[in-house]
Amino acid sequence: MTPLLAACGITVRYGSLAALDGVDLRVDPGQRHALIGPNGAGKTTLLNVIAGATRPRTGRILLAGRDVTRRGPAARARRGIGRIHQRPAVWATLTVAENVEVAALPHAVRPGRWRPGGTRAAARRTADTLLARVGLADLAGRAAGQLAHGQRRQLEIAMALAGRPRLLLLDEPAAGLSATEVGRLVEFLRDLPRAVAVLLVEHRLDLVYALCDTVTVLRDGRPLAAGTPSEIRASAQVRQAYAEGVG
Ligand code: ATP
């Protein structure tokens, strides 16, 4: 099977620090793949490289077999990479609905189906559907800047889904959420259609084990282990790495 995502030999350096040192990672279509590891292991850096926000010094990124290494974030988003940031990135002065509409617009036009006003209407319908799914329908008219942190997180998820991703990159989505919000998030992610693969960076291992079928452990910019949740849970090497460095 052609992997949905193949990161091959990725190296990123900041001065003398190798944030990533020849990392390989594969995500198959529909897979729920977690990327874990102690602070500073290189997890966010790897998501940045996959999303096109950071250019690696060496290595290639293939999306469904196509080399996108030289493509920027917008081009990769068009090819199916959606992203949730550590701190939710929303347009504070736009309404909640407008945020999702903006994200949906590039995908609202169907070839041969364009008609004046139709594109915006299609984006609006997508926004309505997604806001209902993430539980923000009642806040559709509110400025996004007025939302609480957990609601911004939900909004960012709706925006990412509006881009019709094949691969969703989630960077610590549970950070700053209440227990109730985490429960809702887990349920929501569990219910995502398998047409969307997930690459999840998360410190909370309970969440990782609840959601993911494959886990890759990074340490000091290198893969330390990869396997199923039960294999990773049983690994003394992984336990030691976490005991030494997770925050
Ligand atoms: P955390 O779990 O704390 O978020 P992480 O595994 O996501 O950590 P990264 O944020 O990818 O780790 O950072 C990897 C290393 O690269 C760290 O040592 C970090 O300090 C360093 N680093 C990341 N971004 C930069 C940058 N822009 N300039 C210099 N060093 C950086």
Give an overview of the whole structure.
- This protein has a six-stranded mixed sheet, with helices on both faces. Strands 2-1-4-5 form a four-stranded antiparallel sheet, covered by helices on one side.
- The longest helix is centred in the middle third of the chain and has 17 residues, at 118-134.
- It folds into two domains: 1-80 and 165-247, Rossmann fold (3-Layer(aba) Sandwich); 91-164, no CATH class.
- Helix content is 38%, strand content 24%.
- The termini are far apart.
- A hairpin with a 2-residue loop joins strand 1 (5-14) and strand 2 (17-27).
- The model has no long low-confidence stretch (mean pLDDT 90).
- The protein contains nine helices and ten strands.
- The protein is globular, with a radius of gyration of 18 Å.
- The protein is α/β, with parallel strands linked by helices.
- The chain has helices spanning 43-51, 73-78, 96-108, 118-134, 149-162, 179-190, 205-211, 229-234, 236-245; strands at residues 5-14, 17-27, 32-36, 58-63, 66-67, 81-84, 167-171, 197-201, 214-219, 222-227.
- Helix 3 packs across helix 4, helix 3 runs parallel beside helix 5 (149-162) and helix 4 (118-134) crosses helix 5.
- Bound molecules: adenosine-5'-triphosphate.
- Adenosine-5'-triphosphate (ATP) is lined by residues 14, 17, 19, 37, 39-45.
